[in-house]
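Dear colleague,

As promised, here are the two records you asked about, laid out in our usual form so they can be pasted straight into your sheet.

NAME FIELD: protein one
SEQUENCE, THEN STRUCTURE:
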Amino acid sequence: MKTPLVLLLVPVLAWSSAPSPDHNEFEAALHAPFRAPASGARTFTLAFDYPHLAAPLPVYWRLEVTLAGVPVAQWRGQAELRGAPVDVRIDWGGANQAGIYTARMTAHAGDTEAVQDWDVLVGAPVTALAPPQRQLVDLPWDVYYGNLHSQTNHSDGGAALGACHGAQPPHSAPFGPRDAYTYARGRGLDFLLTSEHNHMFDGSAGANPDASPEQARARFHLGLAEAAQFTAAHPDFLALYGLEWGVIANGGHLNILNGTELLGWETGQDGAPVADTVTPRGDYAGLYRLMRARGWLGQFNHPASTGQFVVDDVALGYTRDGDEAMALCEVVNTNAFSTNDSETETRRTLFEGACNKALEAGYHVAFSSNQDNHCANWGTAYTNRTGVLVARGQPYNRSAFLDAVRARRVFATMDKTAQLVLIANGHVMGARFVNRGPLTLTAHFASSAGRQAASVRLMEGVPGRNGKVSLLSELPALTFAPAPGAHFYYARVTQDDGNILWSAPVWVTQTR
């Protein structure tokens, strides 16, 4: 076992107090190279940022490397954010025992905690757990890949790559929704959601008392019309136009995939609401009620385990309305301000811990994988995609797509050529069913690029327990007898190149 090394790194950087009511959150990502020399030696990079920071902020971090849950190495340290990104690099000498290790970063800044888990390989190349498939056979589904999180000049996105340096002043960039759809379709995506910040339709990142409510509403409904027109003209592609509701500070962003009304809390000229329907800022319980009543579907965007989506003073607090409305949880995201258009962005953040907290709270959410593009690289920062299963032979259209999301027939992948579907006693992932007797879980993995599965993990939890999701098995198929009561299970596959896929859960009520 390696002797733990303790580092204390405090970079001194210039900082800015530029105010902003949004995109000001603690960002922490771990870059852990999956492959390395035979010894396993490699350099980990901990990347920290806090855009628009008003004052210096310390970050306390810990990095652990484990094998089958047993600690192998550990480092601790402190960095200080002063308005510019900070990278901490840690060299690990590797280990003698071959296997799949887990690198876990835990970072604290203020009241926010970020946790990242990445698998890393030590030793010889991985042998496939099963012969790799190039497509999912004997499963009656067509798979469509896309991105359910992006912005255009209808809010703070849409800048040309050479001029994109973060969020844009609302409505200032040259490219709008139609440009985004044209770009994404041309780069091989099957669908794209342009999810515009609901509180920026007044042309401001803050409050704008001079805003025209009529113009704001007209812009939103123009976006809906453009999406419908583009889809009608290109039936092989689904153009979606929605809202990213909320703010980060004391809030949390969520996407509404199929809304038909501009929602907001701000007022413009003569105190008139800049919205079709007023939704008080921070009132997630009220928003969930509205979404359920309207039949709208939502996605938790880059969720944090603390301080976000608060209901009754509980982060990611459960409500029955929210459970009906919130269908997806973003488990991985590329850097929102990436200008990479070659699908090689290295700044990627995992949110599996927060999504697991939502599942343990009782939410029935499937995992999604998006890019939060603010620059004109919609869907091309990295190879990650959200995969949606539509019944084979059914027309690919908006109705079929939303039915699939509503049924949680969705998986998250960091590889646009890979697929993962979990089947439980004949039920496809997303299903909720009562089971009696043995339960068989089977993770179906396929890669049209010939990638292999380096590891497969079947994870389990209990909805409403508010506990921890745990490892059930490291086999791709398992037959067992669950304890009586409610459970959820999902599959997590790490490919031989380090890219990860997550199936949607199945929810099982075991009777005996």
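NAME FIELD: protein two
SEQUENCE, THEN STRUCTURE:
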Amino acid sequence: MRRTYTDDGLDPVEPNLRDGEKLHVPVFHDETIIRADELRRCVYVRKGRMPLRKKGPGRAIHVSDFIVEQTGRLTLSESQLQENATLPKEKQLRSTDSREVIYPGKNYDGFWTNDKLVEQVSVLAYINSFSKSHLP
């Protein structure tokens, strides 16, 4: 079962779970690439002169993240971060959110591949982050 929402205010409606049923929480994967020098369509120039433009679209930043319907980005809350900080060093999470940022391209971090996505998903910190955020 999953949550539904009212039509007028988009308020969450909790489902009535029977014995043995669990709440399904959809987790969405989001990727985006941001470039430093996006080409502008409109420029102001002096009469008869052409603007100098960079040859390439600029350096890229690739962001891969997981989104949860109820809370937004998959990350620990402030209280969970404080709780994590009180744990012994060996039990603390290495990462407290699921965001992965790389700088793709030759001579940088390479490109985003399926292997990098699998590594991002399989890191125990992300799984713990999700279970701490959504399980009792």
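A couple of things worth noting about protein two: The longest helix spans residues 124-134. The beta strands are 4-5, 12-13, 27-35, 60-68, 72-73, 100-102.

Best,
R.
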